[in-house]
Design a protein that fits this description.
The chain is an alpha+beta fold. Helix content is about 25%, strand content about 35%. The structure holds coenzyme A.
């Protein structure tokens, strides 16, 4: 499996790159919003600078691992240079050659096709650069946006797991739709 650091991937409108120290400032601005975090499993609300520090510290440490078990691609608009969200390949298993996809975007950037464009590249990276066999993703049954992004990318619905996780931000339990995509079914 290939490993990479200092990642920079360009799409038509976006730059996907490793998170950096300077992202500590903007993370609380984007993430201190229940509309962004209510369906995320491990993100607290309110979201403070110390939460951002914890996340960036963890991510920077992970960037040094060989092989990496986690890739968080920060998303920038090419026209601005600010972080607007992130998409990640998590829990990468070298043995199983699989990973879990996750993503979020600051609210004011929603509904412009940004996550479809970014997640497509992250999935492509997982299959082509990391040699994954399977990428999986779960989304609360209530999370219309996430379920729509997943289906648009061509993920296959595998079933609904009842009371699968609890969102840290609200304490609510969620039923979760489970989806997967296999390498041979990926078309970019
Ligand atoms: C889920 C999320 C990342 C979607 O990002 P986005 O950039 O707005 O999504 P896109 O604009 O790329 O939309 C992709 C498709 O999903 C559809 N879609 C997006 N949001 C939707 C919504 N709230 N309801 C219904 N459809 C939606 C779009 O219409 C588009 O489909 P189309 O091309 O057929 O029209 C964003 O809403 C978000 O950050 N939510 C909070 C964090 C979160 O829930 N993350 C996922 C955890 S599993």
């Amino acid at each position: 499996m290939e490993t990479n650091s200092n990642i920079r991937i360009e799409t038509e409108r976006l730059i996907l790159r490793d998170l950096e120290d300077r992202d500590r400032e903007v993370l609380p601005i984007l993430m201190n919003d229940l509309d962004v975090t209510r369906y995320l499993a491990v993100v607290p609300h309110p979201y403070t600078r110390s939460d951002a520090d914890w996340f960036i510290d963890k991510t920077l440490k992970n960037q040094q691992m060989v092989p990496r078990t986690d890739y968080v691609f920060g998303i920038e608009l090419r026209e601005a240079e600010d972080l607007v969200g992130a998409v990640g390949l998590h829990h990468i298993s070298e043995l199983d050659q699989k990973a879990t996809l996750g993503y979020w975007l600051g609210k004011k950037y929603w509904r412009n096709g940004i996550m479809a464009e970014a997640a497509k590249k992250a999935v492509d990276y997982g299959f082509k650069k990391l040699g994954l066999q399977r990428i999986e993703v779960t989304a609360s049954t209530l999370n219309q946006g996430s379920n729509a992004v997943i289906r648009k990318l061509g993920f296959e619905f595998e079933g609904t797991a009842k009371r699968y996780y609890r969102a840290k931000s609200t304490g609510d339990f969620h039923d979760a739709n489970q989806y997967s995509l296999l390498k041979e079914n990926w078309k970019m």
